[in-house]
Amino acid sequence: MTTGLARRLALTTVGFGLLAVVAMLTAPLIGSTHISFRRAFGRSIPFTDNVDAQIFFIARLPRTLAGAVVGSLLASAGVVFQGLLRNPLATPFTLGVSAGAALGAMLAITFSWSFAWAGISAAAAASFVGSLAAVGIVYTLARARHRGLSTNVLLLAGVTMNAFFSALILLVQYFADFSQTYRILRWLMGDLDISSYQPLVTATPLIVISFATFAWLARPLNLLSLGDESAQTRGLNVAVAQRTAFISASLATGAAVSVGGPVGFIGIVVPHLVRLIVGPDHRLVLPASALFGAAFLVGCDVLARTVMSPIELPVGVITALIGGPFFLWLLVRKR
Q: Is 318 exposed, middle or buried (0-12, 13-18, 19+ CB in 10 A)?
């Protein structure tokens, strides 16, 4: 790594890192009930009697951390999928991972599965299993007639499975009652309303693996952007890089969806905004997107909690209202 790149990486990480830290420290203080940061961390009042501390640590901090993790995972996965498919409009949900996760959650809600694993609800666990099933099917189809991983087949298989899983979701919804349908719709909108740290703790190993893999993928994604042949002549094992990118980004997406539901547009809005600031180099775009994705979704969740207070909107509604017009602008801009 050259001195100039190292300096830009340091500045990028510090700048976006400070933004993420400020968002995560500020968000738990904002809500329909005002709390004091000093009282929340004060030791003069026992925790059982300290309302500010209970609101901060039990009601808001887990939600803020969930928003940071989900936003970071989806934004990073968006960068990887766009680099893998060489398509700037690709998202973490393009290849059917989200639809598979949604189908798993729908089955758990509709048929009242009551098991829990490591503190994770049945819907979240079934969601992650559904995402793994979608990844396995799409990956198998993409490799069916190729030694490596065909990105064209991968994209077509992902879009097809997305439509197929969506049809199955509608079928499952047909058998749901009113209360189950309400839960299903809330989950499909994307919701960070969690009140414990256990889901985040359980997902930590997968989060660490995903980000470690993303760090390794920065240079391969730069080479893949030149084309498979050019990347291979520069010493890159294209098949391994493609396989690693697809599996790691898919697992990160599955983990994010299992925690917060299918929160849309993070994976396309954040990477493009970051590229406008730092340029196309994935060695800068990946860490910047991870940090900005965390800050962005935490900020959207604050809006979801406060814009119609005391009513709390699903955070996916806010990201869609922001991401929809942005996506249309990208389509017009690319013409």
A: buried
Q: From 23, 27, 86, 100, select the one nearest 224 (Cα to Cα).
A: 86
210 near 74, Cβ under 8 Å?
no
Task: Please state the length of the chain.
Answer: 335
Residues 300 and 322: beta-carbon distance below 8 Å: yes
pTM for the predicted model, two decimal places: 0.91
Q: What are phi and psi of 90, to 5 degrees?
A: -70, 150
Tokens at 97, concatenated: 């991972």
Q: Residue 169 corresponds to which tokens in the numbers above?
A: 């979701």
What is the secondary structure of 29-40 as a DSSP string?
A: G-SSS---HHHH
User: What is the tens place of the pLDDT at every residue in 47-105?
Assistant: 777 888 888 888 889 999 999 999 999 999 999 999 998 888 788 888 888 889 888 88
- d(CA 49, CA 87) in angstroms, rounded, equals 54
